[in-house]
Amino acid sequence: MAMPADTNQNGDIFGGWLLSQMDIAGGIHASKSAKARTVTVAINAMTFRKPVYVGDVVSVYTDTIRTGRTSITVSVEAWVQRRQESDLLLVTDGQFTYVAIGDDGRPYTVPSPSR
Ligand SMILES: CC(C)(COP(=O)(O)OP(=O)(O)OC[C@H]1O[C@@H](n2cnc3c(N)ncnc32)[C@H](O)[C@@H]1OP(=O)(O)O)[C@@H](O)C(=O)NCCC(=O)NCCS
User: Is there a contact between 108 and 100 (Cβ–Cβ < 8 Å)?
Assistant: First the structure.
């Protein structure tokens, strides 16, 4: 849930807080797919479509767009349910690219999606 501590100077939810939630969700998706630790290498095409307000319940949905040799690009969408409402609204979407890394911190070849 978006909380008062996450607001900007206008009283709306700070975009950086939402981006952080989306990065966490995309990272979980990438790590599970890669079966390895991952780091974020790039965030592309972020679109903030609607504001997020205090009290909104935020859900983040992820899907694989592309699996490379060591990288996975993930579509990440944030949806909200506003207080007293039941509809879900798409507020933000973007594409996040993660790189699987080994214990040495170097890129690690991810398993093929067909395996
Ligand atoms: C991620 C990191 C290990 C990659 O190291 P690197 O030496 O640049 O590795 P490579 O050049 O071999 O690239 C690795 C993969 O990343 C992809 N990549 C690199 N830069 C990219 C970019 N700007 N956008 C999209 N993909 C990118 C490459 O295409 C490659 O993918 P592939 O193997 O599937 O073809 C290194 O850049 C790093 O440690 N970055 C900091 C990560 C970080 O701290 N993130 C924030 C906190 S999680």
Answer: yes
